[in-house]
Amino acid sequence: MAERKQELEALRDELIDRFERYKAHKEQRDGPLDKDMEDQSIELQNDEVVEALQQEAEDELRQVMHALKRIDEGEGDVCEQCDEPIDARRLKAVPYTTVCRECAELG
Ligand SMILES: [Zn+2]
Fold first, then answer.
1. How much distance in Å is there from the Cα of 70 to the middle of ligand 1?
2. Would you tell me how many other CB atoms lie within 10 Å of the CB of residue 76?
3. Separation of alpha carbons 15 and 28, rounded Å
4. For the chain, N or C: smaller number of CB within 10 Å?
5. Where is the Zinc finger DksA/TraR C4-type domain (predicted)?
6. What's the Rg (C-alpha) of the chain?
7. Rounded distance from Cα 11 to ligand 1 centre (Å)
8. Ligand 1 centre distance from Cα of residue 14 (Å)
9. Which pLDDT score is estimated for 27?
10. What's the 75 CA to ligand 1 centre distance in angstroms?
11. Domain boundaries, the chain
């Protein structure tokens, strides 16, 4: 499963990069407001989108880190809920998953 680990590490780096960009974007936006009201309302909408994207990146990053930890512990391809092996095709499709299809569907 070395290949999956490499894939996850690349994904992790990409997510950290994305997260930092959103963060930088927001910090920039928190600067002095020197535009007219119309621009500000557009910025506000953008901020909400960025906020949502940042949250999404953070959630995904947490999931990736968790999967990497499982791989390091030698349990990367075992479902953390029922201890059954996770289907290889599922791992390929969703490399950061830590549960089997059945458990994922049960929620
Ligand atoms: Zn399971």
1. 14
2. 20
3. 20
4. C
5. 78-105
6. 19
7. 24
8. 28
9. 82
10. 13
11. 2-29+37-106
The correct CATH number of 2-29+37-106 out of 1.20.120.910, 2.60.40.10, 3.30.870.10, 3.40.50.1260 is 1.20.120.910
Q: Biggest alpha carbon distance in the chain?
A: 59
Query: How many Å lie between the centroid of ligand 1 and the Cα of residue 98?
Result: 9
| Mean pLDDT along residues 37-41 | 62
For residue 22, what are its two tokens?
């959103």
pLDDT at 84 over 70: yes
Q: Give the type of residue at 8.
A: L
CA dihedral 33, 38, 42, 48 (to 10 degrees): 60
Residue 64 token pair:
């990736």
pLDDT of residue 42 exceeding 90: no
Q: How far is the CA of 61 from the centre of ligand 1 (A)?
A: 21
